[in-house]
Write a structure and sequence with these properties.
430 residues, mainly beta, 6-stranded mixed β-sheet
């Protein structure tokens, strides 16, 4: 449902706050809806002559979600404070003596007040407010439409089954991570570009804490393929492979490469907007075994069960975060890492199946942060995205491409006017 622009004439808003009910004339409001139908334009209200009697208008029911995502509501007489969104599926007004239901009347919750745009007498409104998550607020700020299962998104659950590729549609889908709801790009989006100084990035997802996870995709210009989408030189994940410990990110060769690059290119100017608490998952928990193979859990999820997850197994050891935070192992000096194979799977990759058409395929082999297995008591193996887009693996001491991944804080400011395209990306305002 799209909300229409409200004409200035004969339009009224009910403003419900802690001080009571105030009737005012609506001067200008532009409303748009997406995801949960939020308002993005500012509202201007001035005093004017009220032409309707208070008895003609009534907020019959105001229902506030008690716990995010549960669908349980409590009734209240005053709007709550905090981050809430209008549930437009439930909310409606009845107009006239015949009680005609209207869901097209614009209703907005803003700054602890409820605004209802009306132009009919004898109106009664029934409103439901949902708690908004940090990730939802960022999606709203960027102005991106959220897609559904009917559009091609996987089911909303911790580990949905993903057995087919998505390489044509531009999708923003909803999932779950260790922080709450997360929104991730899938297929071949054209609206997930971010520019930070001279570097171009693609948004992988909006993390559950509202931070924005990015993967490098160009210097001085936006690139989708070729070595220009990654660091200038390749690297082994680890120079040694004869121990299962070499699949871990601790003191790995590639960690040193990423640290040096971060210190040279991002730390001094952009370090203050990096989120180090959301972390990078190097899930090295043991999974299944077969003969001399000790598989790690990412292999079981991606290669065997086709059920990726954004949740990090045993976060206290596997989630790499910076010191001073509240999550993970706090072992990182710098908030930089690599993509996980699960994230690549949600984006459109399938184990051992080529897919040249999704945005993470750059025509190159590059490392993920996820281990595959340790076999024969001699060789550690890790996941990578290969040059055909399939999710494959290789010995960790083999040199492959490096694509840095970072997380911008949820309150990062962007210059006005960006639409996320490669020619007009969201540009960090520093």
């Amino acid at each position: 449902m799209k909300m229409k622009k409200i004409k200035k004439t004969n339009t009224m808003k009910i403003v419900l706050g802690l001080s009571g009910i105030i009737f005012v004339i609506l001067v200008a409001v532009t409303l748009s809806s997406r995801a949960k139908y939020r308002v993005t334009e500012s509202i201007q209200i001035v005093n004017g002559t009220v032409t309707y009697k208070p008895a003609d208008l009534a907020l019959v029911s105001l229902n506030v979600e008690e716990t995010a995502g549960t669908g349980n509501y409590i009734k209240t007489k005053v709007p709550p404070t905090g981050n809430y969104n209008i549930n437009t599926t439930r909310s409606y007004c009845t107009v006239g003596n015949n009680g005609t239901q209207l869901k097209t009347i614009p209703i907005e919750y803003k700054d602890g007040k409820l605004y209802i745009g009306i132009n009919d007498t004898n109106t009664k409104c029934y409103v439901w407010l949902d708690i908004s998550s940090p990730a939802e607020d960022v999606v709203d700020k960027l102005g991106i439409t959220v897609n559904s299962v009917s559009d091609g998104c996987p089911a909303y659950e911790e580990a949905p089954s993903i057995t087919s590729i998505e390489d044509r549609k531009s999708l923003l889908c909803k999932g779950i991570d260790d922080f709450g709801d997360t929104y991730y790009f899938r297929g071949n989006p054209t609206n997930n570009w971010v520019k930070i100084g001279k570097f171009y990035w693609r948004i992988i997802r909006i993390n559950g804490n509202g931070s924005i996870r990015l993967i490098l995709s160009g210097y001085n210009e936006a690139k989708t393929t070729g070595t220009g989408t990654q660091l200038g030189s390749t690297s082994a994940y680890n120079n040694l492979a004869d121990s299962s410990q070499y699949v871990k990110y601790d003191n790995s060769t590639i960690k040193g490469v990423l640290d040096n690059w971060y210190n040279t290119n991002l730390k001094s100017t952009y370090g203050s907007i990096m989120d180090g608490n959301v972390g990078f998952c190097n899930d090295a928990d043991n999974g299944s075994t077969s003969g001399s193979y000790q598989f790690f859990k990412p292999y079981d999820r991606i290669a065997t069960n086709k059920k990726p997850t954004f949740k990090c197994g045993t976060p206290i050891t596997n989630l790499y975060t910076t010191s001073g935070g509240t999550k993970g192992n706090q072992k990182l000096a710098n908030p930089i890492g690599l993509i996980t194979v699960d994230e690549a799977s949600f984006a459109g990759g399938i184990y051992s199946t080529a897919n040249s058409g999704y945005y993470l395929n750059n025509g190159q082999d590059y490392w993920t942060m996820s281990p595959t297995d340790f076999y024969g008591s001699s060789t550690a193996v890790g996941f990578l995205v290969n040059d055909t887009g399939l999710l494959g693996n290789n010995h960790v001491n083999i040199t492959r491409g490096v694509r840095p991944v970072i997380n911008l804080k949820a309150d990062t400011q962007f210059k006005p006017g960006g639409d996320g395209s490669s020619t007009n990306p969201y540009e960090v305002a520093i």
